[in-house]
Amino acid sequence: MQSSPTTFYIASAVGLGVAATAPLFISHGFLLYMLSLSVIGAIIATGLNITNGYLGILNLSVGGQVALGSYVCALTALADVPVPVAIVLAVTAGAALAFVTFLLFARLTGFFFGLATIAAAEVVRLMIRNLDTITHGMRGVRGYPPLAQSPAITYWLLLAALAAVLLLVSLLVHSSIGLRWRAIRENANKALSLGLPVRRLQLAGYTLAGAVMSFGGALLALLLQYIEPGIAGLNTLVQTVLMVALGGGGTILGPVIGALAITLIPEFLRVANELRLVIYGMTLIVVVLAVPGGVVGTFNRVMRTRRRLAAIRTTKGATGCPQ
Amino acid sequence: MFTLVAQAVISGLALGAIYALAASGLGIIFGLFGVINFAHTQNMMVAAVTAIAVTSLGVPLIAAIAIGIAVAALLGIATERLFIRPLLSHETAQIDTLFITLGLSIVIENGTLLLWGSEPRYFDSPLQGVIEIGGVVLSIDRLVTMVVTGIVFLTLHLLATRTRIGKAVLATAQNPDAARVIGIPVDKVRLLAFAVGCGLAGLGGILWGTIYSVSYLTGGTFLILSFVLVVMSGPGNITGILICSLLLGVTESVAGAFFDAKWQRLIVMLVFIVIIIRRPQGLGTGRFARTNI
Predict the structure, then answer these.
(1) Distance CA A323, CA A316 (A)
(2) Chain B closest-CA separation from residue A85 CA (Å)
(3) Which of A9, A48, A228, A234 is deepest in the core (most CB within 10 A)?
(4) What are the angstrom distances between the C-alpha of B151 and each of B23, B109, B139?
């Protein structure tokens, strides 16, 4: 997909290196906190990008997956389970939920599938809210150990996590699996007729996406040091969808850029919390209206433009026509 | 014991009536347009909020209610014209409208929070008080809700089946292209139905406001339930929606009187998931069902 993967990896490594130096310049704790938050947002958005960007599946279960990861991590850490183990448990739980959810909804198409995933997320939220002997219900969970004592180390660990996730996704996307995923996105029926195991590939992608989102949820719990059932709500969904849509679905860096933008720009504008949500809503409206093909179309359009650019670049001749 | 059950049933019927008003609006829209308006239940909140705000300015209650419903209908018209109509020609129309109305819903909800604050507000309603029927004490506001909703639905039914406009709506729902061919202004008819649907929701919100209270969150609490009711009954099956709503309301109310109510929503969600898996087209095929998809 990239005309030069090596350049991409080098550029990314440099970018990550630069990002890692942030704590050296930023003594203001709040800004570092916001950066950490956007890194987590990038992880979650990258997870969503797997299904919505690369596979073309309308996955709206973000709230449920993130909340499950958050709660499994927080509750086990609260029970004195070591933090790394808590994170692994959270990721496993997320993968299991995604696996089961997809199997349940496998026969649904597009819009109805999306509606069903929203329902699934709502089920997660209600379960968390209702099982309050385990989850502390509406009171929320606090008092569990953080990722690290110092904000700088927390930030570096989160950056490392993001790098790992991006590496994993990048390797997958550039492999034959990624090729098949994109084939399914272009035309699932054609892919099926070509002999691709479409359902299995979708299942794999959906499960991975869920696992990554739950990973982000676990890290989110550790950073925020307080979680409540509202995490599973629509706000998480809208923010993550915006991150992917604005940054560019179907690309590796898109969700990262989107996450940075969505998390940081409102801070710089000194926007109050409620107004921020209004702006997210309006942005979503504008994106759908202004971009032909709407939110889903952005993903495809980005891909088509890059493909065209790559095609032009690989031919010799100034006219851009193949010779 | 009997008193408790009777009161729970009346409460439940009133609750179901409000669910029915909210859900049938959504059902009409889904039946005619084939798309989902995620911001639909915000009409309920907007109507109630407007009515309450207007009454505090001294406007008499009846006028305030009319204004509230009108505002909801206007909001509906704006939604249809600005946010839904442009998207209907997309091939991913359903998904696009989902996202855009999701965004709209967030804007309305948080916008109301900003403008109005987070405390629940109440109506200064003359419907307070109770009456006694057969030795059972029942609250007037719930009875009024039931009666009003009953009248509204009866009127709707008569309008839909006996008037030219009503039949035009039915025709458009059954087959928009054929309706166009015989000269029905499909776009205007759809717009009218959309506005009516939003007005119904507005009425539901106001009635809710007379019994309970209204806050910026009110829209969201009805949203998923309205979806469930529409999907359960089938897109245009208004009668089915009415029946399911009443059943749901009574079940919730009676269960809440005797058991812990917090599981009710979860059970509803699970039922929704089961139904949507086995029958994405809904349980019933109503008069409004889209026949050319």
Answers:
(1) 7
(2) 30
(3) A48
(4) 17, 30, 19
Over residues B10-41, the pLDDT tens digits come to 888 888 999 999 998 888 888 888 788 889 99
CA angle, A234 as apex, A104 and B84 as ends, to 5°? 90
The reply to whether A187 touches chain B by the CB within 8 Å rule is: no
CB-CB under 8 Å, B110 with A277 = yes
Which residue from B38, B203, B205, B8 is spatially nearest to B107, judged by alpha carbons?
Answer: B38
Q: How confident is the model at residue A298 (pLDDT cuts 50, 70, 90)?
A: low
Residues near A132 by beta carbon (within 8 Å), at least 6 away in sequence? A138, A139
Q: Residue B277: which of A104, A235, A281 has the nearest Cβ?
A: A104
Q: Are strands B130-133 and A226-227 parallel, antiparallel or unpaired?
A: unpaired
Residue A131 sits at the chain B interface (C-beta within 8 Å): no
Name the residue of chain B whose CA is nearest to A284's CA. B103
Q: What is the ipTM of this complex?
A: 0.75
> In chain B, which residues have their Cβ closer than 8 Å to the Cβ of A114?
95, 98
Q: Give the residue carrying structure tokens 């292209």.
A: B177
pLDDT of residue A216: 96
Residue A291 in contact with partner chain B when CB distance is under 8 A: no
Indicate whether this model's pTM tops 0.90: no
In B, minimum Cα distance to A103 occurs at B277
DSSP A141: E
Residue A7, burial from CB neighbour count under 10 angstroms (0-12, 13-18, 19+): exposed
Decide if A63 contacts A236 (C-beta within 8 A).
yes
Give dist(CA B81, CA B78) in Å, integer: 5
Q: Which residue has the tokens 């991150």?
A: A243
Per domain, the residue ranges of chain B are 2-278
Interchain CB distance below 8 Å, A285 and B98? no
Q: Which residue, among A104, A111, A187, would best test binding to B if mutated, counting the most B CBs under 10 Å from its CB? A: A111
Query: What's the whole-number mean pLDDT along residues A202-223?
Result: 96
CATH, range B2-278 = 1.10.3470
Distance from the A6 Cα atom to the nearest Cα atom in chain B, whole angstroms: 36
**What would the pLDDT profile of B30-89 be if each residue is shown by its tens digit?**
888 878 888 999 999 999 988 888 888 888 888 888 999 999 999 999 998 888 888 887
- B256-266 per-residue burial string, b: 16 or more CB within 10 A, e: under 16: beeeeeeebbb
DSSP state of B82: I
Q: Name the class of domain A5-314.
A: mainly alpha
Residue among A239, A201, A204 nearest A40 (CA) = A239
- Judge whether A212 and A165 are in contact, CB under 8 Å: yes
Per-residue pLDDT of B263-291, as tens digits, reads: 777 877 887 788 778 766 554 444 444 43
**Which whole-number Å values give the CA distances from B167 to A119, B11, B292, in the listed order?**
35, 34, 18
